[in-house]
Amino acid sequence: MTIDIKKLKTDLAYWLEVAPEGATHYGPAGKFHFEAWFKNVSGGSAQVMLTSDSNRLWHSGLLMDAPLIPRPSPAWDGSGLPPVGVECEISTNGGAGFRVGCVDAYNRDKSAAMFDFCGIMDCASLDHCLFRPLKTEKERVVEVAAQVAGYGKDATIVPIVIGRLYDAGMLKEPTND
Predict the structure, then answer these.
(1) What is the DSSP string of 10-39?
(2) Axis-axis angle for helices 157-167, 137-148 (nearest 10)
(3) Which pLDDT score, from 0 to 100, does residue 92 have?
(4) DSSP-assigned letters across all residues of 88-120
(5) pLDDT, tens digit, for every residue of 14-44?
(6) CA atoms within 13 A on the CB side of 27
(7) How far apart are CA 70 and CA 103, in angstroms?
(8) Could you tell me which of 44, 25, 43 has the C-alpha nearest to residue 120?
């Protein structure tokens, strides 16, 4: 079976159709590695299943310098709890500082959740958690431009004007170069 890489990167339904149960990453074939599915990726190791493996069994393995494609995140509009697998901003201490993370699992009664923050797992009671969708590039640019211009978040017309400048292609996201 040939994997459509472009579709695999963006289409969650396609991912679920072609990937083995539990797969979180896909590694296309390269000069020094075989095409494979991955899960439990962290610290240079993972569970690996070669696409040629007719037994479809997971094996312990080391990560090579393969460019891994992560499973696409499900869509979330910011209402209710984010679905498992979605990357979002999470505060586990009642709003005092948000971090980008992925919802890894909820317990049965959805009173607590497990989060993955760049490979570091954290568990928290949902009584103390706040969630918000990741900001788009436009939202980040408008926020930074308003701060640089000396306008706070309370200014109403400035973000609208800056947003129109962004839409016209006159602004871009700052880089850390």
Answers:
(1) H-HHHHHHHSPTT--EEE--BTTB--EEEE
(2) 120
(3) 86
(4) EEEESSTTS--EEEEEEEE-TTSSEEEEEETTE
(5) 998 999 988 888 888 876 678 888 887 776 7
(6) 25
(7) 14
(8) 43
